[in-house]
Hints:
2 copies of one chain form a homodimer. Chain A has helices at 2-9, 27-42, 57-68, 74-81, 83-98, 130-137, 163-174, 208-219, 224-233, 296-306, 336-345, 377-387, 411-421, and strands spanning 14-19, 46-51, 103-106, 113-115, 124-127, 141-145, 148-150, 156-158, 179-184, 205-207, 237-241, 259-262, 275-279, 282-291, 311-318, 324-332, 354-358, 361-367, 394-398, 401-407. By secondary structure, chain A is an alpha/beta fold. Chain A has 2 domains: 2-268, Carbamate kinase, CATH 3.40.1160.10; 269-428, VC0802-like (2-Layer Sandwich), CATH 3.30.2130. Chain A is globular and about 80 Å long. At the A-B interface, helix 3, helix 4 and helix 5 of A face helix 3, helix 4 and helix 5 of B.
Amino acid sequence: xxxxxxxxEKNYKKIVMKFGGTxxxxxxxxxxxxxxxxxxxxxxxxxxxxVSAMAGETDRLINLVNxxxxxxxxxxxxxxxxxxxxxxxxxxxxxxxxxxIRAESVQGWQIPLETSNMHGSARIKNINPQKLQGxxxxxxxxxxxxxxxxxxxxxxxxxxxxxxxTTAVAIACALNADLCDIYTDVDGVFTSDPRIITQAQxxxxxxxxxxxxxxxxxxxxxxxxxxxxxxxxxxxxxxRSTFIENNFEKNDKSxxxxxxxxxxxxxxxxxxxxxxxxxxxxxxxxxxxxxxxxGVAAQIFGDLADQGVNVDMIVQNISADGRHTDLTFTxxxxxxxxxxxxxxxxxDKIKYSKxxxxxxxxxxxxxxxxxxxxxxxxxxxxxxxxxxxINIQAITTSEIKVSVLIELQYIELAMRALHSVYGLDIxx
Amino acid sequence: xxxxxxxxEKNYKKIVMKFGGTxxxxxxxxxxxxxxxxxxxxxxxxxxxxVSAMAGETDRLINLVNxxxxxxxxxxxxxxxxxxxxxxxxxxxxxxxxxxIRAESVQGWQIPLETSNMHGSARIKNINPQKLQGxxxxxxxxxxxxxxxxxxxxxxxxxxxxxxxTTAVAIACALNADLCDIYTDVDGVFTSDPRIITQAQxxxxxxxxxxxxxxxxxxxxxxxxxxxxxxxxxxxxxxRSTFIENNFEKNDKSxxxxxxxxxxxxxxxxxxxxxxxxxxxxxxxxxxxxxxxxGVAAQIFGDLADQGVNVDMIVQNISADGRHTDLTFTxxxxxxxxxxxxxxxxxDKIKYSKxxxxxxxxxxxxxxxxxxxxxxxxxxxxxxxxxxxINIQAITTSEIKVSVLIELQYIELAMRALHSVYGLDIxx
Lengths: 428, 428
């Protein structure tokens, strides 16, 4: 496995480096960011950089908009919040130039990075690589303001929260880079949340598909859209820390740097399960003794979908008489109240005895591309939880994931047990 | 005179309104700015708006740059400080739109407002009026970020401190507007500084030339470049307050609104002197017993000019023997130390007994286009000062101005006496 890493790493000639808000938190931290860039340059790597706003700045700007207390105009809000990245990109460029490293801040409209006109959640439509490649050819490092673009109407757009990850991957694709390095405040992607599982270990390599499941399960290291985009273009992403000193060692090609998110084919599998993810912010709704006739489920879930409520897990038990059922499903906790309203609003369209809600639930997921070729992963999960006396309230599965709904109080117990049983604990 | 005002004012069909940093200080104040814009719109006036950054914001951004403690890169500094106007313009647009008034923030690069590439003090080269006029034609109020433009290299530039006044006048010229209204935190231009002269009164009309003298003498109401530009294009400027309530009265066409800065021909003169200006921040240098031979003055003032020192007043007295002289001149107080160094650096090139410096001086100026046709203004000034026992240390004059250098301690006394003798005191 080490040999394979070496092979990949030694070929990095052109990379995109992305630094998030925490990495750009203050002038001292931005200097550290400059150190990383300087190291890559000294190693002869062609580098384009994408930055987020300084930590807290986007919130400050959003507060300014909220203070105005007006019906929001998303185009103007974009013009306001995009200034955070404009400032941070120019500050980093200032610092690099003062070290004698030629750099130039580049805003979305200067590239141009063309997007749809869906202000606040714009989609990237096209990136013209000419300007950026021209800077690289002239040995000037482009410092690109992440998160933002320009619409056909020549207005500033933003890509939505966390959009700088997506900017970085998209720029890497447009420049035909070898790799997109995402610098953040954690060491990489872990087998589980290290705050809960002290035995969690950093994953050296993970497939795009697994990363997508990890991200959507709450791993929050990378924005989901950026992983989808990287998967489409087969652009490897490396998640690594801005703050670990050994990142600065020259020619450090050890496979211990961060986590490489890459095509499944580049991963020599040695584990069936890659990680244990969890999600807390969900709520459960049970409709008891629901009259079971055709169209009832369509009515309920149709109305919820129309109101923008995302339903996750669904379990339906047929009752003894075959005419009534208990229907259980989960929604985001933030959608709970409106979901109950929607169900009550159905009135006579559905008949049931009682509608019960609960927030004291959590979802635990076992993730791994190895499941495709290994049977028994789900069975082992259910047995492990049963052994600990944890009741499973609902189950969903995909090709590379098994998720179960359990009582919130058992979450740490369940995760520790699963992390251990699938052989993910740190070996001493 | 009132009749003339009415005539001019009733023709205002298209105006530019400019609001400075104090006017844009917080959300509440920006709402007041929106009231002014709404009033003009309700009166059927086509309006384009230019704004400064919220008070304090530009300083905050400059501090951020200073904190980085690097050799400054002026292009990147411009990218940083121009965000202040981007935020304020979008906030104002947000507030207008929420009132049902269609508005759109417009950045320098979106116009485009093309400038030279002298970052930090760029000159406006061209303004394409097409986009702005298109917005006006569609009944959308452009809210233009002042102070900034875009260079040929497609980089953001800034025009230097106070540049938003210049932006406003330039936009007014490009749009062929009838007037440029500069809203600020004072009621207009006064016959003298009201903090010193309680009898000072607001001037209803003043010529461009007088305004230039007033501005350069420390009146600081309008940026000098904006007045020069307005004079070149004969674009009337009105200086008025954002915060006076009667500004909100509909159809208030009284000539008491602010101060109109306009072409001399539009002013029916009834006063020879329009105002008394002063300047404190100067220093005096006297070189005693300077050997008086050809080329000495050229040597001294040439070296000072080469080092960027601006010499203002110069007085030279021939000594009794005809071979020595006392040379006295004034420079900005901030240039005093370097001026002394330059003179001492001349070494053997000039011979003199002593070089004396003094900061305890002030300059008082009497300004008025009426001087062109009225003799005796200077004589009356000298007589008035003599009567008060104030010694005149140096004199400079222009067609519409007489300035004298006096001891700093006499400044208020001199100003009050002159303000009174030229008939400028408020009539009760």
